[in-house]
Specification:
Elements lengths: L4 H23 L7 H17 L4 E6 L15 E2 L6 E10 L1 H6 L5 E8 L10 E7 L14 H12 L7 E5 L5 H9 L3 E5 L3 H9 L7 E7 H14 L2 E7 L3 H9 L9 E2 H4 L4 E7 L10 E3 L2 E10 L5 E9 L8
Parallel strand pairs: 1-3, 6-7, 6-8
Antiparallel strand pairs: 1-2, 3-4, 4-11, 5-8, 5-9, 9-10, 11-13, 12-13, 13-14
Helix pairs in contact: 1-2, 6-7
Length: about 325
């Protein structure tokens, strides 16, 4: 990321403008039952917006490999080629199925870092644990049992375990983990999709989540780490290998220690900017509200260098300006 503070702030604002236009594009398909069209609209909108940014950007965490997608693929050069050199991690549409159903917690997210700032991971699984800021370092750990983590967290927060809420993706693979959390006395918030938003919710006081647990996508883990870098939460992630091919892909990505446990700082290092815009309603962000001739968007943005979280409400008049204005 650039050292110039003015340029840095401009990048933060431009990041929000990118996520705003993506959210508006994807919201057109909310509740329509067509997740493919929603995803395609989001990807096309983000690609077009990023092309116009005055940066020398490289997509490190994208929508797939060049063989899988022709837009926003990992390794793609993006931006005008001028301006600061930076790496980009993104999920154009987190919660494709959620948008198609008209459900909550869908958002679009982007993070930008210094060249080499993001851990290079393949599109495999990652085991994750995350908490918010203001807690003792190492209060939770991937290698501890859920009951141990919950007891330590309850003591650190000064509340009984029964008051703690754990967020987790509602997947069959989490059946035993869910049972262990409930046996320990904590409550569950199971989400259908969107583990980036799940990790962020653990860092926000008003979101009603104390701990995020479980297995999700490794690219989303890096993005979640970038988000936590801004607000000071803690996170650990470890890659999960379902077969030999997963290890081959990890090796190609430069992973040498297959059992390594990564911190948020190791997954997203240096000066990081993170932005997200809600597509559908969540505890953290309002969804896009369309009206004749315009839309209202609700976004969050922060920079790790300052730790300041800002909420941005955008009122977009389609008759007077572009949706990125």
């Amino acid at each position: 990321m650039p050292e110039d503070k003015h340029t840095d702030r401009n990048i933060a604002l431009e990041s929000v403008r990118v996520t705003e236009v993506v959210a508006i594009a994807a919201s057109q398909f909310m509740g329509g039952g067509d997740e493919q069209s929603a995803d395609q609209a989001a990807v096309a909108a983000m690609h077009d917006a990023l092309r116009k940014l005055v940066i020398d950007g490289t997509i490190c965490i994208g929508e797939g490999t060049p063989d899988e997608t022709d837009k926003l693929f990992s390794g793609e050069k993006i931006g005008t080629g001028d301006g600061p050199k930076m790496d980009i991690a993104l999920v154009a549409l987190e919660g494709k199925s959620v948008v198609a159903r008209g459900g909550p917690n869908a958002m679009t997210v982007i993070a930008m870092a210094e060249d080499g700032g993001f851990l290079n991971v393949p599109n495999i699984y990652m085991d994750k644990i995350a908490v918010g800021p203001g807690l003792p370092e190492g209060v939770v750990d991937l290698d501890r049992r859920p009951s141990e983590n919950l007891q330590a967290l309850s003591e650190a927060k000064g509340v009984p375990v029964s008051d703690l809420v754990v967020c987790m993706l509602d997947r069959p693979r989490h059946g035993k983990l869910i049972a262990k959390v409930r046996d320990a006395g904590a409550r569950m918030r199971l989400i259908l999709d969107g583990d980036v938003s799940g990790v962020i919710s653990a860092s926000q006081v008003g979101a009603g989540v104390d701990l995020f647990l479980g297995i999700g996508g490794a690219p989303q883990g890096v993005l979640a780490a970038a988000a936590l870098r801004g607000v000071g939460g803690q996170m650990q992630g470890r890659l999960i290998y379902r077969n030999k091919n997963d290890k081959v892909e990890a090796g190609k990505a430069g992973i040498e220690d297959f059992d390594r446990k990564y911190s948020a700082e190791e997954m997203a290092s240096g000066n990081v900017t993170f932005a997200a815009t809600g597509i559908t309603y969540s505890a953290m962000l309002e969804g896009v509200r369309l009206f004749p001739g315009g839309a209202i968007t609700h976004s969050m943005v922060w920079r790790s260098v300052t730790g300041t979280l800002r909420y941005v409400e955008g009122h977009h008049n389609f008759t007077r300006q572009s949706t990125t204005g």
